[in-house]
């Protein structure tokens, strides 16, 4: 099944900001709203913005209804997820994408939004893994924000580069891009939000996890056969990793390497994708080319 791409945004169109996971206030979004308006867009805030139910942006029903309203509204041409946290997996099974299928629109976010990236790809639609409004104005994040704008407006993407890394496995791979946050990829395994990795380039990132958790999740991907058919592997940020009093003994990238070495696909480490200001936007479902050489790695859309 070929992947369908929503139409590029145009100036004057309406976009919605919703929070399918952690709570957030309208005040926290004010700078991002200003940026989107400078891009020529009209911003609509969903009911989940300023919603509150413990750590969530409203209870599950509110967050689901808010997201469904934006999916169904033909005047909304993109849905930007305000922030991550936890909660998207709790509502995704209650979403109806039938009206979305009649008029697809861009859905953008990362981290917990990996659930939606995978769900949409399984349905046959591309989405954007990129910086979210609450993080629009991080110091050092200017290129990441520009990459999101380019993706939304259908402008040519800039190649994403990574320096040489001692664990790189040189080679070239071409395939549709799949992946996101390792913890969420693990969470959706065996569900309707699990997209196939077969023949695709997988990218991984994560934040604030114990090293043994990283090993457990990579072991699961390995034992379940999900790594066997990869065209290539892109490793992004593994930020603020934690360890036990008795050290696990290896770093996150060394853990990933210990499983990737069972296969022959190219692997590039150190890509600017994940929980750092340099989080560059990528389109999940887009055919990409991964080149890993002795000089470093690049990831860019495959030329027609």
From TrEMBL:
Residues annotated as catalytic: 111 (nucleophile), 205 (charge relay system), 275 (charge relay system)
Domain LD-carboxypeptidase N-terminal: 15-130
An annotated GO BP: proteolysis
Keywords in alphabetical order: Carboxypeptidase, Hydrolase, Protease, Serine protease
A GO molecular-function annotation: carboxypeptidase activity
Coiled coil: none
UniProt xrefs under SUPFAM superfamilies: Class I glutamine amidotransferase-like, LD-carboxypeptidase A C-terminal domain-like
Domain LD-carboxypeptidase C-terminal: 174-290
InterPro entries: Carboxypeptidase_A_C_sf, Class_I_gatase-like, LdcA_N, Peptidase_S66_N, Peptidase_S66C, S66_fam
UniProt keyword Thylakoid, yes or no: no
Protein family (similarity comment): Belongs to the peptidase S66 family.
Name of the molecule in the record: LD-carboxypeptidase
Organism (species): Hymenobacter sedentarius
